[in-house]
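BUG-267 | component: ligand-complex export | severity: low

The export step for nickel (II) ion jobs runs without errors, but we want the raw record kept on the ticket for reference. Input record follows.
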Amino acid sequence: MPALVDTHTHVQMRQFAADRAAVIRAALADGVTRMVVPGVDVSTSRDALALAREWPGHVFAAAGTHPHDAATLTDEALVELRALAHEPEVVAVGEIGLDYYRDLSPRGVQREAIVRQFALAREVDRPVILHNRESHADMITLLKAHAQGLRGVFHCFIGDRQMAREALDLGFYLSFAGPVTYPKNTELADVAAWAPLDRILVETDAPYLAPQPFRGKRNEPRHVALTARHIAGLRGIPFEELARATSRNAATLFHLPDAPAAFDSAE
Ligand code: NI
């Protein structure tokens, strides 16, 4: 089975406290040989880096402040994130973004936090991982004004072809998570079938958003194969082709090295 990259998985979080190593080992054994673990604040970014150091070549970190936590992005926090983002195991700035659905931070604070982190990404020469919920117009405006030349991905893309087109036109990748497998999301399925093969990624967003048939349960990195298989079906191409393309895209965007050749699942 060809290897997959779970480009967005929060295995550093407390939901995996009891069985984190087993979850990672199960993913590797199932062919999910590389994963990118984004932070949502300084502490979870630090934990992501520690995990990357425990699993060299398999786990990579991203450092950033999520829009829910935007108010925590003080000057001191930004100094800490900058130090983390310079580390070789940290392959992106993220996750960062806007969330006007839950509005857990004031929108002005969210916008200020994302703009400061665009500058950080530019400074450390890393791509950005974007969280974007009910905030598409502002996201596109901010990207055009403040993110010229930055590379990145719309993580857990939700939207129609028009929204996808705007992201693609700015040079961004689209990453699909479990919701693309939910039967009612026909518009999203249409985007996953239509988007250029060289611009799509797959992810779990574990522990959230498990794909069918695990919807509602704790998600984990090995389930990215279900999402990848579903998208291959939507596109009418072999799973192997989808896996190869999305892994190549992830390696290109995040500058990931090849996974270490011999992973012994019995270790
Ligand atoms: Ni996330």
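Assignee comment: Attached the raw record above. The radius of gyration is 17 Å.
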